[in-house]
Amino acid sequence: MRVALISDLHANALALEAVLADLARAGADRLVCLGDVATLGPHPDAVLGRLRDLGCACILGNHDEFLLDAELIHTYTEAPVVVNAVDWCRDRLAPADRAFLAGFVPGLDIELAPGLTLGLYHGSPRSHMEDILATTPAERVDEMLGGRATVAAVLAGGHTHFQMLRQHRGALLLNPGSVGIPFKEHMPGQPPAVLPHAEYAIVEARSAGGSAGISVELRRVPLDRAALRRAAESAPDNPITGYLVAQYS
């Protein structure tokens, strides 16, 4: 089985289409989104509609829940540009979009092969607002995983906007990166630099000698800066448009 994982789309329809075109060439049996689908970027309704048409299973990210619960974002950030951009996106959702978001799940387990499980979440299994990074101490990771590393061969989440693959207690910890706003550096509390590509991953279980092995592929799809800038400029009243245009200039 080949499972494609996308995450942190952030209303970037151009990047999503580029990833889907790349995935059509690479091939996968299943597509799962790890959350943060329709905030900050210029086209929240288009991204939600595309995922809905694909029948894509979606994990509930913190930004997805911000769209459903307007007060929750204040437990995460008070940065005006972020809060106002989320409000802008929420105002553009149709009832069908809200119903789709309400169906997102906190986590999902997929059997890749007998005895091999892929465990999916957004930030960590216990919270969609936690960061798991390559530099996170193992003891801290243990707390966030809550024992999941002993029952899943691969654990995958997004949230940080950083591609990552690390081994932890025998399990593989994976972050497919961000489709819509991949970060150059981890700079908490500061505006991040955005990279001009889209990121995703493919997890594959393959039979070998009577047992199944696992491979993980981190993929990056190049994007045209001018096209990204034009897409951002198509939503001039989005409070974050100026920041995005500057990143793509």
Give helix and strand order, one letter per element, not per position.
Answer: EHEHEHHHEEHEEEEEHH
Let me know the largest β-sheet: 5 strands, mixed
Poorly predicted sequence stretches spanning 5 or more consecutive residues: none
Shape: globular
Determine the structural class based on helices, strands and strand pairing: alpha/beta
Q: In percent, how much strand structure appears in the residues?
A: 15-25%
- Oligomeric category: single chain
**Residue share in helix:** 25-40%
Beginning-to-end CA distance, first to last residue: 40 Å
Mean pLDDT, rounded to whole units? 95
Rg over CA atoms:
17 Å
Describe this structure in words.
This protein has helices at about 15-25, 45-55, 60-70, 80-90, 95-100, 140-145, 225-235, 240-249, and strands at about 1-5, 30-35, 55-60, 110-115, 115-120, 155, 165-170, 170-175, 195-210, 210-220. The chain has a five-stranded mixed sheet. Strands 4-5-6-8-7 form a five-stranded mixed sheet, with no helix packed on it. The protein contains eight helices and ten strands. The protein is of the alpha/beta class and about 250 residues long.
